[in-house]
Amino acid sequence: MSSSLPVITTAERRHRLGRRHRLAPSVRAASAARAADAVVALHATDAATVFLSLRARLTGGGPAAVEQALYGDVSLVRMLSMRNTLFAVSAELAPYVDSSTARGIAAKERRTLLKHLADDGQGLDAEWLERAEAAALETLDALGTATGSQLSAAVPALRQKITIGRGKKYETETGVATRVIRLLAADGRIRRDRPRGTWTSSQFRWVHTQPWSAVPAAEARAELARRWLHAYGPATEADLKWWTGWSLTDVRKALAAVGPEQVRLDDGGTALVCPGDTGPEPAPEPWAALLPGLDPSAMGWADRGFHLDPAHRPALFDYAGNIGPTVWWNGEIVGGWAQRSDGEVVWRLLGDPGRAAEEAVAAEAARLGEWVGDARITPRFRTPLERELVA
């Protein structure tokens, strides 16, 4: 390893996180799309995560401002993409995410469903699926928007049931509606619209839309890798492979197209940054943040050692490796938080970051409580510390 490589210290990595992820108050974003672009994509498996991740990064506005971005001007869209997971990305970035990642997922989803249909033995095939999809889209055109249940009620084909794993221990009968709707969404022919209930609900209505404009896959992967490196670098090839879910070959080709520079880290290891991005990052002002479960600042790397003490993992992660709500101080995870049934936001520090940190966290918790208002947040993935705090 060359000792002449530029050095980026752990402190500088945390400076980058605070500034580039728009978490320090002085660099918060003016729009939801810009906040999302700052971290490339927002985890959206849990409906509340999108809202709470944006709350921490926006200069102002309540849940209605996020709803406007998602359902009004549609500057932010949810897509099944990296790691076959639901994310929210800016409409500007969506064609690149679609071509680099979502197209492959959609093709795999279609192959899987067609195999299930063929194995079921009822004569359901690609032509039947095409007719079912067309009927669903025609119904959406007539209704404007509809939930999955409303679509199933209006489209007889979506009430079809099939048997998966016939004759095996895991044999089960299931309806096709959810799978057909998921496939239409993966293909970009429908998108999630306003949910039934509040902004914390995942019972979305669906609306007919047009697929994204085509971008060559290699170009799209390179653009996504470049944006990711800017937001998360210094980072490794393994980090990018984990974050995207791409094959190692695709990761290496994308990085080669970007032409990243290598830097040395405090621990003696090496990592990658965007070309020309080796200079020191100015320290932001001291900042605290209360981020939701699965927030991208906690989930952007396979190796999170520079901002997370390994001793804190058992309290903050569930059994499947999903991180819960976290408390941050100057680029480091220092605790966790939760909302109790009466609406109170409670938190606990896993160590002693000092009085200034405690005061800043308390102020941020008050800001979060005011922003959430009457809504109640229960993470989809419950972690030991979150459960303790609400008990």
Task: Write a structural description.
The protein has a domain at 94-208. It is 43% helix and 16% strand. It is built from 15 helices and 14 strands. The protein has helices at residues 10-20, 32-38, 47-55, 63-72, 94-120, 126-143, 148-154, 177-186, 217-232, 237-244, 248-258, 296-299, 313-316, 355-372, 384-390, and strands at residues 42-43, 76-80, 86-90, 146-147, 161-164, 172-175, 190-195, 204-208, 261-264, 270-273, 288-291, 326-329, 332-339, 345-349. It has a four-stranded antiparallel β-sheet with strand order 11-12-13-14. The chain has a three-stranded antiparallel β-sheet with strand order 1-3-2, with helices on both faces. The protein has a three-stranded antiparallel β-sheet with strand order 4-8-7.
